[in-house]
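Escalated from tier 1: fe (ii) ion holo job.
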Amino acid sequence: MSEPDPTFEFAARDLNLLQTDTTEPTVLAWRPAQDWGDVRELVVRTNARVAELMLSLVRETAQARNDEARLLAVIGRFAFEAFPNATHHVLAAREHDEAPLHNIIARARAGDGTSVPLSRTIVERVLRDGHALLFMQGQDLGGNKESIVMSRLETAIVAPLTGVRGTFGVIQLDVRKPARGRFTQEDLGMLSVFASQVGLALEHLWLHQQQQRAFQSTISALVHSLTLKDREIAQHCERVQRVSLAIGERLGLSDTDLEILSVAALLHDLGKQGVRNEVLTKPGSLTGVERQEMDQHAAHTQSILDMIEYPGDLWDVPRIAAYHHEKIDGTGPFGVAGDNIPRAARIISVADVFDALISARSYKPALPPEEVLAKLAAGKGKDWDESAVDALHAVVNDVLNDVYSISPDRDGEEPLAKAA
Ligand SMILES: [Fe+2]
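Tier 2 regenerated the structure:
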């Protein structure tokens, strides 16, 4: 999240979006969207300050492209930097063609917190025609347009936001104080250039957010299908996710690595859907054939997860999830050893065993935390990653409290609450 910008203040509550006009707004000049390519070239070539601003805008919107709060802060700041006489900035858009227009940005320079109306007439015209307009709000023109431009009456410029799906919003800059001067035709050209970059940036952001939602819904569907197969396994997966994250945070993993860890941990036992219930819940030891069937679940997890398309950094989730039973000495189902096992998989492995041992199951009782930790400590460097076991040890009281509702000041003899 970006820091609040002290130069400007939000005035969203003062915004009357699509206010019905009392007096027809007067259009003083316009610029069709098809001219914007020429305008961009002209404006950027002839004005070094504008060229520099636009270059910075392109760079900063690219850096903030997947972070909504940061992107809107960049757009809001640049609007006032690019138009020094503007007192108010409004950006209204719709994410889908059928959706209503809503305010995305409504800002005033500090000290200029008066209401910022968007004119219904102007917005409808801009959306329909795709023109950028220089206009005057709520004033009776009385004849001579040029004299109005030259006078210092209240003016505004508005441009359409356009992307691959057409026009989807408007951006408006207002001069509310006569002392600040007025907008000109050059400002109109400048706003056209600004709006084209803002349109691209917003469209990219929404596409990214849509992809994230699609991915999250896929994950939710998979978890739901596991819940239908066996509620206990699904709950185990959710607890392993939380324990894994506690270990990962203790180890100082980056936000990206924590996200990878989170998704892989949640899905690590998905492959148990390919194991028969009588094997999954069998009390006592498994026969050789049953053990073979059970051991296949890690490979099933990979084959299911390989079918999903992952956003960017999450591409290795299937392998990480599948390797949750790998041993440091290379004796796990895939025979991978040591550092060749992804770090996130080594963390999930520790969290998985911790949860399995500390939880009561239909076929076995729960072990006390001390005993579980002792077993993990005994397997350090052979079965489990040493740093992951140590990290769990360091945060175990919080984990017991947060994930298992077991108080840190427990009595060693006190029976553990059966994990849900
Ligand atoms: Fe497993």
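Strands lie at 8-10, 15-19, 26-32, 88-93, 102-109, 116-119, 131-136, 155-163, 166-175.
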